[in-house]
Amino acid sequence: MTTTYATEPINSAKSAIAALTGDDNQTRYYAAWWLGKNKVQSACPFLCAALRDERYRTEQGGYPLRRQAARALGQLKNREAVPDLLIALDCEDLNLREAVVQAIAAIGDRQAIPTLTTLLKSHSEQPYEAIIEALGTLQAWEVRDLIEPFLQDKSERVQCAAARYLYLLTQEPQYIERLVQNLSHDNMYLRWAAAFDLGAIGHLTAAEAIISAKVADSLKLLNLKRILEALLADEAENGTSGEGKSFLLGAIDQLLLPENRGVGVSNGEAIASLIEQLHHHHPAISAIAVESLVEIGSETVEPLITAFLKCKDHGIQGFIIQGLARIGDIRALDLLIEVVGIEVANHCQGSVRRMAARGLGKIGSTTNDISAIDRCIEKLNWALSNVEDWALRYAAIVSLQEIATPETQTILEQALPQQTDQIVRLRCQTALENWQPAKITINN
């Protein structure tokens, strides 16, 4: 295998396509990801070629580049890729077949139904979970008789996929209840899968179950967003308007800065001991520590800032930022601004940034220091205008509404037409419709 290195960074469609057709496998893999992420339609034929390219193969027989090309084609949602995707289903790489099925579902072309049905009936090793989910997405209701036996499959994830399909078809509560049961499963991966299945169903009952589930807030945010999008689509189609929007927006608002309500706390413990409890392996213990630190209040601010600067664990940093954000002390302003400005990809750090943004809203709406308010507004405006993470932009909107100065109102008015994400745009619109000016006295 020949290994070369890209002569220019991948920062445009041209450079990404050039890298995709090069020789370095890792660079080609990243190029396929970049083209999918940025939905470069002109890359469709090049990604189809990569889907057929067997040069990059692992010792276990897998095809990483071909899988990534399939995922990218799913992001493009270009129907011209379907014939190549269907051909790729003959590959022996099970993970590639799964990626191809998911891409077909994302594209939504019903011409794939006969091929998917054949795989379903093959009685050989197949990505059955992905196939059943795809058939539900494509509304292939004619294969119900083939799906129902999978409710008894040895794999609980396949069972859930079948329940999801049958609920979408029948709207019978017994199937959604099957999914809700898995939200409290001992296996966290099954809890995650159930959350995604319920998010795909898009039912308000599913939202209530997700909110109380033992899954990460990032997963809750993502799937509540999917449910809200489904609700908005239904309203647009049927010309109706329900109360679900307010409920879901309120739930998302709350998840951006959890309050750990109902958790018993002990105020007798020293601050140092509480900060040490943030390192506990059980998140419930850390949540109790956060609650106690918040109740103690401003006395904990300096020790928490020091602990954050010493800590490298994103999960613990998240608890610290949550505490500082809820206390809303101006001494944490510099740290919260710095955290909001960090560009990283993993979900935990994304959660930290969102909580920091909400902390800026707390500080900006309670202090009478005009300089501090200006700094909060400046960073929140930056986040709203420059950040890809929809939930961080959403958090910035909530905080700008909380600060509620004429400047933040103008920022939201100008941002509204620029928001491409439907849920972020709805939250911005709701903020403006329910605007209440700030009541604090500002000192220059």
Describe the structure.
The chain is mostly helical. It has helices spanning 13-20, 25-37, 44-52, 64-76, 82-88, 94-107, 113-120, 128-137, 144-147, 156-170, 173-182, 188-201, 204-211, 217-238, 244-255, 271-277, 283-296, 301-310, 314-327, 333-340, 347-366, 370-386, 390-403, 406-415, 422-433. Helix 6 runs parallel beside helix 8 (128-137), helix 12 packs parallel to helix 14 and helix 21 (347-366) packs antiparallel against helix 22. The longest helix has 22 residues, at 217-238. The radius of gyration is 24 Å and the shape is globular. The model is unreliable at 1-7, 260-269 and 343-348 (pLDDT under 50). Keywords: Antenna complex, Phycobilisome. This is HEAT repeat domain-containing protein.
Please give the number of β-strands: 0
CATH classification class of the domain at 271-433: Mainly Alpha
How much strand content do the residues show? under 5%
Low-confidence parts: 1-7, 260-269, 343-348
CATH topology of the domain at 271-433: Leucine-rich Repeat Variant
Query: What average pLDDT do the residues reach?
Result: 85
- Helix and strand pattern: HHHHHHHHHHHHHHHHHHHHHHHHH
Q: Helix- and strand-based class?
A: mainly alpha
Q: Mind sketching the topology for me?
A:
Layout: H1 13-20, H2 25-37, H3 44-52, H4 64-76, H5 82-88, H6 94-107, H7 113-120, H8 128-137, H9 144-147, H10 156-170, H11 173-182, H12 188-201, H13 204-211, H14 217-238, H15 244-255, H16 271-277, H17 283-296, H18 301-310, H19 314-327, H20 333-340, H21 347-366, H22 370-386, H23 390-403, H24 406-415, H25 422-433
